[in-house]
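Milestone M4 deliverable, item 7.
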Amino acid sequence: MRFMLLSPVLVSLSVSSQAGDWPQFLGPHRTGISDETGLVDSFPASGPDIAWRVPLGVGMSSLAIHDGVAFTMYQDLDNQFVVALNATSGKKKWATPVAPAYENSMGNGPRATPTVHNGLVYSYTGEGILTALDENSGDVVWSANTPKEQKGRPAEYGVASSPLIAGDSVVVQVGAPNAAVVGFDLKTGETNWTAGQGNSGYSSPALLTLAGKQQIVAFVGAAVLGISPVNGTELWRYAYVTDYDCNTATPVQIDEASVLISAAENHGSTILKISKAGDAFRATSSWSSLGKNSVLRAEWQTPALADGHLFALDNIGSAGPITSLVCVRVADGEQLWTQNRFGKSNLTLADGKLFISTMKGELAIVKASTAGFTETARASVLRMTRQAPVISNGRLYLRDDREIVCIDVRAAK
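Output delivered:
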């Protein structure tokens, strides 16, 4: 394990956005951070305020919220569906089959979260079928069988790359021999460009501006890639080999030239500094904490960055049998506090708090403080879930393999 102090002092990036909608995986900025304020600190003795529950089928997809509608994916015995629900009442607006039912030893059903953009909903199924649907009607506008088109095969544990909008392309990680990442035309589904080679991993790409250039950062099966969103040119590559290609967490921007990548299976975390000389870009490690003594090994949970500190789940051991909740100071890699054996969970940062969903189906609230661990609320709301809470317009949405629950998390005035 080694640490290097980044210079100048690290600052988190601030991206302007209107509070309310949560139109894609990890929210408006694809960071797992909500802009909303005025949220509850605790629950009454009777439990959280449940606005509605609706039954749903099998799936690991999270939810996207746009213009008063909640979108997610699920499957029944025959098909995978994209479904639209009234975000206030839970009433179904439409449900469209997009592929046959998907089965996998690590869990059945779709994994990726839909993305809503300019009147279309983009979905990605468990076997890699990318579909654009009309946001209002659910009608299919186009569909692309990405493994078939790119002559590849789906990731072993199922396709988990949530679609990213970048310029005139919708971008997903495909994992074909000559097309690790592919940009498809937003309106037609035609291939705009391909980039990289090899397995896709299980991460979702992010659109970041690093070293003065907007780029797609894709954490694929054995590397991290910086890709031009215009034409798919590979700007830089950094090898990151993990067992079973289990690179799953989304890259997290640290400052104007740095990005964090983290993986479990006893791997660890690295901060890459992206530099430019002439027209050439380069990625070098400026901070790393690797191996069994790492301070952070994110499994399928993306860390949240606030004021130079990472709030995250650290998965200890192969496949993360033990999971701790940690706060890590980025500047020197110090673990400021650890809640040992917190349990496998996922988190969303909002209003100075961590809203945490545990695999046991609990919803917990923890202060996002560097001073220490303080839990202020916990309640059982679902069965087993892996999704991070979605927060939109004062409501928190969460799902499992049986239902969706909507919880009013607005603090009383």
